Amino acid sequence: MTATCNLKVCTGVDAGTESSDDASNWNLISTDAYDSTGTSYQTNKISVPVTGTTYSYERWLRLEFTGAFTLINNIKAWHSSGNLSDSNIDLNAGETDTGVTPVDTVSSIATTTLTGWNSEVEAIDITPISDIDTSGDETDYLVVQLEVPSTVLTPGDIGSQSITFSYDEI
User: Fold this and answer.
1) 77-104 pLDDT, tens per residue?
2) Does the predicted TM-score (pTM) go above 0.85?
3) In whole angstroms, what is the distance from residue 12 CA to residue 40 CA?
4) How far apart are CA 75 and CA 47, in angstroms?
5) Could you give the count of Cα atoms lying within 13 Å of 148 in the half-sphere of its Cβ?
6) Residue 38 region, left (φ>0) first, then alpha (ψ -120 to 50), else beta?
7) Hey, what domains does the chain have and what are their CATH numbers?
8) What is the C-alpha separation between 74 and 9, in angstroms, rounded?
9) Below-70 pLDDT ranges, the chain
């Protein structure tokens, strides 16, 4: 028995609209939309503010498991590669089991700074309380947000970032 794992990007009211297929882009942009083509970031950029801090819309991610399996557990997520273009930029993340509408102000969920989730040892646990034992079951949400303060000295594309997900299949 083998499970199939699909990454879903959730947008809209209560993060209730999921990408219809396995998401390939999760760009951190200035709009609450799934960037299915990977080009929306070009017109919905996050700019360095003159003062204060600018935030991307939170990006709500979750895994959906399909196929034949007995149990999926021990589900973790961590930032595994990619360097931010400026040391003042941060990539914050957090976990929740309840969907809320993504915001482009400071997140109350994505509060762990990059240095707190950038290794497997510091992974964020997105295992739900209820067992994942049925095709179509999903994890808790991983919420990610880009934080861009006015102190950024090197503006521009932050480059590709990778998040690794791991889980145990029984």
Assistant:
1) 999 988 888 889 999 999 999 999 999 9
2) yes
3) 16
4) 34
5) 23
6) left
7) 3-169 (2.60.40)
8) 21
9) 1, 36, 38
Task: Name residue, tokens 């007995």.
Answer: 70
Tokens of 63: 């895994």
Structure tokens given for 7? 């990454």
pLDDT digits 0-9 by tens, 115-137? 889 999 999 999 999 999 999 99
Q: What single string gives the DSSP state of each residue in the chain?
A: --EEEEEEEEESGGG-EE-SS--------SSSS--TTS-GGGTSPPPPPSSSEEEPPPEEEEEEEEES-S-EEEEEEEEEE---SSTT-EEEEEEESS-----SS--SS--B-GGGSSSGGGPEE---SS-B-STT-B-PEEEEEEEEETT-SS-S-----EEEEEEEE-
Burial of residue 68 (number of CB atoms within 10 Å: 0-12, 13-18, 19+): exposed
Q: How far is CA 63 from CA 10, 116, 146, 148, 151, in A?
A: 11, 21, 21, 27, 35
**Share of residues in the chain with pLDDT > 90 (%):** 68
- The two tokens of residue 19 are 């990408």
